[in-house]
């Protein structure tokens, strides 16, 4: 949910909010929520949103509010919060809000428990070096809050509570399905240990995605379970239009804003966190992250399409792209990020309809 | 930690015990491996008069011929409190000691004030008790590197464990005790390590559901021997509970940089 009314220039993070116009944001929220409701009629299984802070990159400080707005106008589609940034927030509050959403939606919540990208730690003044410890502890605490039959207390390193007994509890038993980001070896292992669906977005290339999936499956086996294709989520920027040329033109325009405005200012703050803190527990993971960002930044749209890290084209082209990527990764969930920068909302809605009519029939049985 | 070894003559024989510190009395009942001097006991001895009786037959002491059940052991320890302390005492039991503590609270409620149960070995699936030292060690400790340097030899721990049948300590569920716990009205703190694979969480959940005045606390990043894995956190919890009673639920701290 980006803020799309800025000039094409980047600012350091945090992005000064003097550029923020609440009236324009009000209209954007409405448009975004309407598009997500429309997705249900286009045959999508999920609609999802995420959490970001202090920048036009995403106007969702708390994606659960959007989840609440989707719960009643939709009837079938799963509401995927992918997701709350667990180490930055009060885990009990996350457990409560997710439980509310699950009840309000009649058991349609997909619960994303994310660690958050590096600069988000600056926003909430949480030590990045504690991110993994906080993530591991908080996820366990959230699961306890959902599943314990008796009031309980928690004495942890980062979180302490004397009495927990949340109302409501989730509708799905034992708890809503989990999604945990798994874009590197450490996070892939953690997702597997928690029996969560692994989520990968903004891939640098397919081989690196394939490697994370291998690590995840291996770790799941060591933890005593066997993931299915439905436990692997791959997310990509997506633009479907009547012709390849039209899709490329729209996505190129949207990506320009995405790279120059939305991502532009983030890079300096990301670099500070990565270089000065132990956000990553080892150098290998840190280098992989940096290399992934660098690779993405230098790719042209044509190169990204060629590498299979972006879906873009006519319905027929996108069918081929989906089949190719699926044959490489074998994943069961494809997350289409359709709002890319300033990509026009009418193009997005039309793209969703093209997906329903001319893409989905050819890929639904993959 | 300077603990003094003493002996007291009770109706069925002599009982060895240790005492350390001054203040309000607390009786600590050791686990099946015998007395383990942890940083939690050391910390408690700084604020309380810590009494650590050695269950007859453990740690090289002689068993009492007339005491052959958990109930009998509880009565013996009640007599110990009568004779050595002379009034009600806070009571803390670890694992097997937690089971004894529950029996004591059920049999001699007049001698128990607050009750602390550290991963009490009361209800567990049959066959869950580990057979060999290696498995036992893995189940006990998530952070074995924190074991006190002066820990006793494994052989002594295993010899202590062989005393369990003498007291007819149940291998699985102590049905007789289960029938009594609802009558225990002592303010109780139940502790369980989030990585405890010796005593299932269902066991402590059951205790919590049956004991009307109990609190269940999970200690993160700890296996069965919470005292070894997370001594600082456990000590802080136990002290807060003993000192504040129901007020234990309140956060009394402050995160303010300049609270004045």
Could you explain how this protein is built, in words?
The complex is a heterodimer of chains A (366) and B (260). By secondary structure, chain A is an alpha/beta fold. Chain A has a single domain (17-363), classed as Luciferase-like domain (TIM Barrel), CATH 3.20.20.30. Chain A has helices at 22-41, 63-71, 91-104, 120-123, 131-147, 185-193, 206-222, 244-262, 266-276, 283-298, 301-307, 315-329, 345-363, and strands spanning 46-49, 78-85, 109-114, 152-155, 160-164, 178-181, 197-201, 232-240, 310-313, 333-337. The radius of gyration of chain A is 20 Å and the shape is globular. The model of chain A has no long low-confidence stretch (mean pLDDT 94). Chain B is of the alpha/beta class and 260 residues long. Chain B has a single domain (4-249), classed as Alpha/Beta hydrolase fold, catalytic domain (Rossmann fold, 3-Layer(aba) Sandwich), CATH 3.40.50. In chain B, β5, α3 (96-107) and β6 form a beta-alpha-beta unit. The termini of chain B are far apart. The model of chain B has no long low-confidence stretch (mean pLDDT 92). Classes of the chains: A alpha/beta (366), B alpha/beta (260). Chain A binds chain B through residues 137, 140-141, 144, 148-157, 159-160, 162-163, and chain B through 194, 205, 208-209, 215-221, 230, 233-234, 236-237, 248-251.
